[in-house]
Amino acid sequence: MNFNEITVALEKRFPTLQIKCGSEFSKDYKPNQAIWLRNASSVPYTNKDTNPLSALDSGIYNNKNYDIDVYIKFNKWCNKKGWYASTEEYTLMLYKI
Fold it and tell me: What pLDDT does 87 receive?
């Protein structure tokens, strides 16, 4: 999926997620090169799995392991669409594979 297609897919799957162009987070990114998920620390993966997509700044961790429980699931969802998730720079960003 290209930048616009993945943005629509994210909006549909996670309607409360604030999806921004990576260039709004850092001038190191060109427009449409990366996606910044601005409020990922407050958006749950599912209604049953209430851990947020990115718990890095909230200190919320489950009793297993945050990375295995939520981040890996979300990353696999993104991988199916040709993108990968990264928590570098203490925020959740998506990059094209």
Answer: 82
The residue assigned the tokens 């549909």 is 12
List the one residue out of 17, 58, 18 whose CA is nearest residue 66: 58
- Which residues contact residue 15 at a Cβ distance below 8 angstroms, ignoring those fewer than 6 apart? none
Determine the Cα–Cα distance for residues 11 and 87; give it in Å rounded to an integer: 20
Model confidence, pTM: 0.83
Q: Which domain range does residue 21 map to?
A: 3-96
Query: How many domains are contained in the chain?
Result: 1
Cα–Cα distance list, 90 to 6, 38, 53, 81 (Å): 22, 11, 12, 23
- In 3D space, the residue among 3, 4, 75 whose CA is nearest the CA of residue 45 turns out to be 75
Taking a C-beta distance cutoff of 8 angstroms, is the pair 78, 84 a contact? yes
